[in-house]
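User: Structure please.
Assistant: Input sequence and predicted structure:
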Amino acid sequence: MGQTFKYTFLSLIRNGGVLVWALAFPIVLATMFYAMFANLDYDAFGRDIGLIVVDDEAWQARDNEPLRRTLDALTETGSSSGGDGALIAMRTAPDEKRALEELYAGDAVAALLVSDSEPELLMKRDPADSMIGVKQSVVQTVLESTEAIDTTATNAIEQRLRGTADMSKLSGENFVNDLESVLSSTIGADYSQRISITENAPDENARYYYALLGLAALFAANLGLVAMNELLPGTGAVGARRSISALQHRSQIAGSLLAAWLLAFLCLLIGFLYMDVVLRVGFGHRELACVGVLALGSALATALGAVFGALPKLPTAAKAGILTGVACVGALFAGLYGTACMELADTVASLAPWSVYINPAQGISQAFFSLYAYDSMTPYGFAMLGLAALTLVLTGIAYLLYRRQRYVSV
């Protein structure tokens, strides 16, 4: 068994075509995802959104002080969603005419002026910029939120004053003293606490990387296919020699599949480390548990490949083609191919929860997602049990297919 393991492992390493799909392809695709999602995050959430403010007497009025302070804070480095830039890139203009000229001549998305004591946004139209509407909605949300918070704070102070003293008797020094008392007890008070429902911040892009690891595992199933296929007497000289050797069939299968599992695990581990260390994909700071998913996922992939490798009366190329088709379909229902596919995967999983446990790509993706999204390890445990059960079933099927084949000497 030891010799079978050794030489099967060396044979699989020399199979360049299999390693390209099991190792190189996932790394290349992950790099493409990173480049794609990096630009998408920049455009969608916004950094340095251009805004021109008409800096006149109306803008400098006392009523607009909350809005001025808000915009000043959002022009500071670190105010963007990524924390590496400013959300708003604000410039000033002396009047409305000059603001409109700079708006249409530069990269700003809106101009802000105060008309009749109310802030007003003048939006820019640019068909060439597909994200301009999103950026303008960010600026609009800032204005509306600031106005709502200012109104809420003013009403709260007024209600606190009414509860503190008789408003009809307040005048002069008494009013000032009561107002200072209310403000001193209100400004420094903590009325809310910012908490996170989950330990890790939501990141919808991470799910695509998890689905990619599921696809990588299915591509690594070709290692199990090749290992099992070389045990069949009718596939070549190697299989013919092994069939008449003194080593028991169970030992030959165990040695070959262990070699395929180890190489599949190493390929997945390298891809995982590349995503975790180089691309900084979030895995919930549970790397050891992730390695467990990789180990069980590679065992599942090896068992799946062994089933296809043990299929009788099919050439090796046909087996590999069918397995590749299964991998692509599995990745489809894991949501790898875009937002629409991710929604399809969620819909199918909600309508038929059992489908998660028969799709290796989705099962592996779900195991990684459970580590990132849940504080409890219970969902992770159920996902791992599903993977283990499917691995045992596929291993049994592969063994039965191998044992039931008969060959006639001519």
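The chain has two domains: 2-38+201-403, 46-182.
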